[in-house]
């Protein structure tokens, strides 16, 4: 039955996508001049030397984009909180372990991303490349968590 349900349309996933779009629209509607702030951020990217003879693009003034970082922080935090409700719905509807694991992984990613962006906002980290490094670590953690849950669940290995 679990396998049959996992092949059905993911209604919760569709609702999540709708909430994602709603949240993006709300962030744009409540953040003055967000498009121009995004444009300023993109124009601020310049090649920066990260090692001898090695350059990567990074914002020249990463701490000058507080309005954009605040909008991103709000998005990440609200979407993370929404993932808690999504996970509850997945358990109530007895969704597949794969979908539950994916939601737990998303929950960890979005809460983690909000924390990392808050470090940038609070100047706990002041290097763009440290920020990007933490995001890469977070993606890795999310992937490991999802797959560890799936591997640790005996029923998920049945085919």
Give an overview of the whole structure.
With 159 residues, the protein is mainly alpha-helical. The protein has one domain. It has helices at residues 2-6, 11-30, 34-43, 66-92, 97-121, 128-152, and strands at residues 45-51, 54-59. A two-stranded antiparallel sheet has the order 1-2. β1 (45-51) and β2 (54-59) form a beta hairpin. α2 (11-30) runs antiparallel to α4 (66-92). The longest helix has 27 residues, at 66-92. The chain is globular, with a radius of gyration of 19 Å. The N and C termini lie close together (12 Å). The mean pLDDT is 90.
Sum up the structure in keywords.
mainly alpha; 159 residues; two-stranded antiparallel ribbon
Give a brief rundown of this model:
The protein has six helices and two strands; from the N terminus they run αααββααα.
Topology:
Elements: H1 2-6, H2 11-30, H3 34-43, E1 45-51, E2 54-59, H4 66-92, H5 97-121, H6 128-152
Antiparallel strand pairs: 1-2
Helix pairs in contact: 2-4, 4-5, 5-6
